[in-house]
Amino acid sequence: MKEKIPDRLRQHAGKILLAGSGALLALSVVTLGASLLSDGPAASDTQADVVVQQLEGNLGDARAELATQHTALLAQLPDMDIERVNRDGATGRSLLLSLTNSSASTRTVTEQQVLLDARYGFLDHKSRVLTEFVPEWMTATGATKGAGTTYRLADLDIDVSRVQSLNYSYTGVARLDPVRVGPNQSSAAKSKFVVFTYSTSQNGTVTSLDAYRASSKTRDALAAASRKPSSPEPAG
């Protein structure tokens, strides 16, 4: 069980940061709100403005402090290069956008596959990303019939899933919201979720990439979860 603790901390350190920030903000609201109410109905607009300014200042301070604690926490985890994790996170975001921006492209599936194959040396004609994800994504977003729906990256969560020697592996979950619906798509286009995994070598070179679009059932579950505050994991 002790061996799993660093992995859990590593995978959920971002969530710990967000939860802590929310808790500190809630505490500030209760404290300052109680102070304002103690003055009764005669509390002026000026007092309200002061409360808002104090809340904003407290939130900024809390975020800065938690960010420092977050960095310190990750630094204490064994075999973890924080700068590399941040760099690889930016790489993962770039990879995701390269795969999903084809939804608004006028390229054919074959043209998109050739483009990605030429851009990324770790992809080849047997890659599942090219043979399965690209055709399925372009079909689902209407891009196989001309320009499809344009999506924006609304949320992205990338966690370290494995550290093996000098190789790091990551798992990402992205939510993409429709911005402009294509002419061949329903006006009620829903958000789409993409789950992807990738690995990098010590110098930041991507060595593998896999991706798939979440099913309707999984998408609805993820969408529901994103609207709720995350609950703590069960002990053990």
Could you describe the 3D structure shown?
The protein is built from six helices and four strands. Helix 1 packs antiparallel against helix 2 and helix 4 (109-119) crosses helix 5. It is an alpha+beta fold and 236 residues long. It has a four-stranded antiparallel sheet, sandwiched between helices.
Give the overall form.
globular
Number of helices: 6
- Rounded to the nearest angstrom, the distance between the terminal CA atoms is 8 Å
Q: Helix amount, in percent?
A: 40-55%
Give the biggest sheet: 4 strands, antiparallel
Write out key terms for the chains shown.
236 residues, alpha+beta, 4-stranded antiparallel β-sheet, 6 helices, 4 strands, globular, disordered N terminus, disordered C terminus
Please outline what is shown here.
The chain has helices at 5-37, 45-76, 82-100, 109-119, 128-140, 216-226; strands at 150-164, 167-180, 192-200, 206-213.
